[in-house]
Specification:
alpha+beta, Alpha-Beta Plaits, 4-stranded antiparallel sheet, 30% helix, globular
């Protein structure tokens, strides 16, 4: 891709959130897009999560949300996910985006701003 710059830190973030099912994931994603907290979300079904919870190893089918937003929206996204999510402790992990399509990154900035 000709518009992908050199590896450089950006203000765009990818936030990972797991949900118990597709309906829950879609509700969270649609709400965050509607409220302009994120530009978009990918809903990835078929995730198997293995984790320790309350002293026991658990294994569950989940759905992964891959959310795109900006650094300044991360706290608001995390707060909103916690309010919408049925889990006591939802996964909300923000990852920095190092480089990428300049046009796409600009779109994320525009669509996740108020």
């Amino acid at each position: 891709m000709s518009d992908v710059g050199a590896i450089a830190s950006t203000d765009v973030r990818v936030i990972l959130v797991t949900a118990p099912d597709a309906d829950c994931a879609s509700t969270i994603a649609r709400t965050l897009v509607t409220e302009r907290l994120i530009a978009c979300a990918n809903v990835v079904a078929g995730v198997r999560s293995i984790y320790r919870w309350e002293g026991a190893v658990q294994e569950d089918e989940e759905v992964l949300l891959v959310l795109k937003t900006t650094t300044d929206r991360c706290d608001a996204v995390a707060s909103r996910v916690k309010a919408l999510h049925p889990y006591d402790l939802p996964e909300v992990i923000a990852l920095p985006v190092d480089g990428g399509s300049a046009d796409y990154l600009a779109w994320v900035r525009t669509e996740s701003s108020t």
